[in-house]
TrEMBL record:
<keyword id="KW-0813">Transport</keyword>
<protein>
    <recommendedName>
        <fullName>Probable sugar-binding periplasmic protein</fullName>
    </recommendedName>
</protein>
<dbReference type="InterPro" id="IPR006059">
    <property type="entry name" value="SBP"/>
</dbReference>
<keyword id="KW-0732">Signal</keyword>
<comment type="function">
    <text>Part of a binding-protein-dependent transport system for a sugar.</text>
</comment>
<feature type="signal peptide">
    <location>
        <begin position="1"/>
        <end position="24"/>
    </location>
</feature>
<comment type="similarity">
    <text>Belongs to the bacterial solute-binding protein 1 family.</text>
</comment>
<dbReference type="GO" id="GO:0030313">
    <property type="term" value="C:cell envelope"/>
</dbReference>
<dbReference type="InterPro" id="IPR050490">
    <property type="entry name" value="Bact_solute-bd_prot1"/>
</dbReference>
<dbReference type="Pfam" id="PF01547">
    <property type="entry name" value="SBP_bac_1"/>
</dbReference>
Length: 428
């Protein structure tokens, strides 16, 4: 595949450049535009990119880092766990024990609020000038990153959360048109019914965080951008009838899902679609890498489209990196942040991971068919923040919403209780 070939080419160039720079200390200087070569040493980078396309992306980024900053040694602090839940728990323990890594991955946006309020992050706004990032990151992204006039992270990518991935063969077997994209959640239900009638899973989903990802896309679709954003700024009443209607749609969608969902993570739910055991899967666009890694061809082996009713919305999230207060090697962390924000770093990373660069000067021709469509959508669609991935709400709020969702989808609460618990969570 072209994307994987590009990743291999980047890796080969990286290895060649690294070998050329290993001749002696006088050659170990930074090729960065912003950071002079520091004292070197280990740089512990804490992420949840431990497998699959996420690990491929991290490896590609490390290759660029080692080329740009050969005086530093990358130390992989990756912790496996869906959507970073295990990593976040361990990270919080380390931060509270005053044992931070040199830098850690977080979702850009409100997820950083808890760290900022706890005084655990340094303001990195000055690095945006040092690395000339203000001119290459779009203003909408800079607005989402800014908290009280300061920026606390540098994003490595942009992902879209509100995407449907489908198996056209399963749709054809159910008598459906694989080219249909549906105008609303309500218009989608007959197609789900048709698949369910064949005995196959209509909509695959996995553990709680993937269910919250599904929930957010239904809220986006049914409420529209203004009312959806109002859920997070207090202008939309969580107890309103319009929210009740959206939650009713969510409840019905969950009735089409696989019964083993709580024991799976997103790769297994996506694999159900790849293998033909399920028709549809709602997942962020990191899922495209799962299809491409198995040599599946878009339009033939799988199709994709925005969640019905959200075609003109872009569910925004971004992986970003921080500078923790008390980082053992702050110069090394800044060197890593330099690579994360660089054109070379973002191109290599996103070619492997399936996301798109945060930078506007990246060449779309360097990326896959899906990524080119996402680049176009990000430029023209209405940007709305993801709940499940840290852009819309703090970790505290997300945790409470996740707990309420788990209770609801496992039958421990009814719709009215769920809605009241969501309202309480959003106000926490």
């Amino acid at each position: 595949m072209r994307r994987m070939a590009a990743v291999a080419a980047v890796a080969a160039v990286t290895l060649g450049l690294a070998a050329c720079s290993s001749g002696g200390d006088d050659e170990a200087t930074s090729t960065s535009t912003g950071t002079e070569a520091g004292s070197g040493g280990d740089v512990e980078v804490f992420t949840w990119w431990a497998a699959g396309s996420e690990k491929l992306g991290l490896d590609a980024l490390v290759g660029v880092f080692e080329t740009q900053h050969p005086e530093y040694t990358f130390v992989n602090g990756a912790v496996a766990g869906g959507a970073g839940s295990a990593a976040k728990d361990l990270l919080q323990s380390r931060l509270q024990a005053n044992d931070p890594p040199d830098t850690f991955q977080a979702h850009a946006g409100k997820e950083l609020t808890d760290y900022i309020d706890a005084g655990q992050l340094e303001d990195v706004s000055a690095l945006y000038d040092d690395y000339d990032l203000t001119d290459v990151f779009p203003p909408t992204l800079l607005d989402l990153l800014t908290v009280d006039g300061m920026i606390y992270s540098i994003p490595s990518n942009i992902h879209r959360s509100n995407m449907v991935w489908a198996n056209p063969a399963v749709l054809t077997e159910a008598g459906l048109d694989p080219a249909a994209t549906y105008d609303s959640i309500e218009a989608w239900f007959p197609a789900l019914d048709a698949v369910q009638a064949t005995g196959k899973t209509a909509l695959s989903v996995a553990t709680t965080w993937t269910q919250v990802n599904l929930l957010e896309t239904i809220l986006m679709s049914d409420l529209g951008p203004e009312s959806y954003n109002g859920l997070w700024d207090g202008t939309t009443d969580w107890s309103s009838t319009e929210v009740t209607a959206a939650l009713t749609d969510f409840e019905k969608l969950m009735s089409y899902t696989n019964t083993d969902r709580d024991g799976l993570d997103w790769p297994e739910a996506t694999q159900l679609v790849i293998d033909g055991g399920a028709a549809f899967n709602v997942m962020g666009d990191w899922a495209v890498a799962a299809f491409e890694e198995q040599d599946k061809v878009a339009g033939t082996d799988y199709i994709y489209f925005p969640v019905p009713g959200s075609a003109d919305l872009f569910g925004f999230l971004a992986d970003s990196f921080t500078l923790p207060v008390g980082a053992p090697n702050p110069d090394g962390a800044k060197a890593w942040l330099d690579t994360v924000g660089s054109l070379e770093g973002q191109t290599a990373f996103n070619q492997a991971k399936g996301s798109i660069p945060a930078r506007t000067d990246a060449d779309p021709a360097d990326f896959s068919e899906y990524q080119q469509s996402a680049i176009k959508a990000y430029a023209q669609d209405t940007i709305v923040p993801s709940l499940a991935h840290g852009a819309a709400a703090s970790i505290t709020v997300l945790t409470a919403i996740s707990d309420a969702t788990s209770k609801f989808t496992t039958g421990a609460s009814d719709l009215a209780t769920y809605q009241s618990e969501l309202a309480a969570a959003a106000g926490s």
